[in-house]
Design brief:
The chain is α/β, with parallel strands linked by helices. The chain is 34% helix and 25% strand. It is built from 9 helices and 14 strands. Bound molecules: zinc ion (ZN) and fe (iii) ion.
């Protein structure tokens, strides 16, 4: 594999990701939850930051743009909405391509959590960075988009190859698992939830996940199966999303 990924905790429950293209040594950060933490990782690794790639404009994803750009001179690529709170050098949207050295990242429209939310897919390495769109056993809240938009976005992500390693931006998996168990009694989910609770007891991350694992156990991707009487898959998704928003687990 040509892309190396370094994952580390940031803020209370975010993950930071630094990625390095093996052929050229060029380095990017996926989002900027915490400039200090990212600079400390760069220092530890001996890596030089070239590129900042934002998934969406929320402060726990773009809040470190300014400080990191000032500290490293890195250029910033992301959706237009990032300019609401932070500097941005290049606007991208679904269908665009971003090169990190020789690694090609396809930009996927993943709107719904926010407008203009995007994911980055490295097809050659079977890796995707999905921000707050798809979580392990969960998905992002709908702050700006409609259920239809989010369902379409989740479908685009779920259509990536099953063996894709999926880096989501938060460690929400244990609470997502508690909700999932309240709407789905699939044996595969029970087994995964036990593994998730045990991993968290040991203080281990449950990110990354895979497309295969999410398709098998994520109640949002399974919404049409869990709510077969809904008017459409998007309606089924909307019902599960509303149940999660009201869940007191
Ligand atoms: Zn967010
Ligand atoms: Fe977030």
């Amino acid at each position: 594999m040509s892309l190396t990924v370094r994952q580390f905790p940031c803020l209370s429950d975010n993950y930071g990701f630094l990625v390095r293209d093996g052929a050229t040594g060029r380095v990017a950060t996926i989002d900027t939850p915490d400039a200090e933490a990212i600079l400390a990782q760069l220092d530890q690794l001996g890596w030089t930051l070239d590129l900042i790639l934002n998934t969406h404009w929320h402060p726990d994803h773009a809040g470190g743009n300014d400080a990191l750009k000032k500290a490293t001179g890195a250029t910033i690529t992301g959706p237009a909405e990032v300019t609401r709170i932070a500097p941005l050098d290049r606007v991208v949207r679904g269908g665009d391509v971003v090169m990190l050295g020789e690694t090609r990242l396809d930009v996927i429209d993943a709107g719904g959590h926010t407008l203009g939310h995007i994911a980055y897919h490295d097809a050659a390495d079977h890796i995707a960075f999905v921000g707050d769109t798809l979580f392990a056993l969960g998905c992002g809240r709908l702050f700006e988009g409609t259920p239809e938009q989010m369902w379409d976005s989740l479908t685009r992500v779920a259509d990536l190859p099953d063996d894709t390693t999926v880096y989501c931006a938060h460690e929400y998996t244990a609470s997502n698992a508690r909700f999932a168990l309240s709407v789905d009694d699939a044996p595969a989910l029970k087994a995964r939830a036990e593994a998730v609770f045990a991993a968290r007891e040991r203080g281990e991350p449950t990110v990354p996940t895979t497309i295969a694992a999410e398709k098998a156990t994520n109640p949002f991707l399974r919404a049409p199966l869990l709510r077969p009487d809904a008017a459409s898959p998007a309606h089924a998704f909307a019902e599960i999303r509303a149940a999660k928003d009201n869940f007191k687990g």
